[in-house]
Amino acid sequence: MNDCLFCRMNRGEIPVEKIAENDHAFAIRDINPRAPVHDLIIPKTHVPTAREIEWVHGDLLAGLLALAREVARLEGVFDGGYRLAFNVGDNAGMTIFHLHLHLLGGRKLGPEG
Length: 113
Ligand SMILES: [Zn+2]
Fold this sequence. Notes:
This protein is α+β, with helices and mostly antiparallel strands and 113 residues long. It has 2 helices and 5 strands. It has helices at 5-10, 58-74; strands at 20-21, 25-29, 37-43, 82-86, 101-105. Strands 1-2-3-5-4 form a 5-stranded antiparallel beta sheet, covered by helices on one side. Zinc ion is lined by residues 4, 6-7, 46, 98.
């Protein structure tokens, strides 16, 4: 057991409203949204950042992207377009070191968000 925030959410130790989930990932809303739609797609397996992704994580990544597509539909941004982004490390503003995919949409996005 580790005390990572997202791992604790996944284990149900911290109550959280999940938008959707599948076998590999769950999705929540960002608590500090930077766009009308700003969700986090979080793998159920602990991987610190995208730097640690290896070939063995193929199913995890497919599950992450499949859930992102479902969330885009649920949030009403599927047709209009949206951004998927991994922040990696301090300079990217990463604050929780458990891999998560940002889904941003609901307005025209600038070059960096
Ligand atoms: Zn974790």
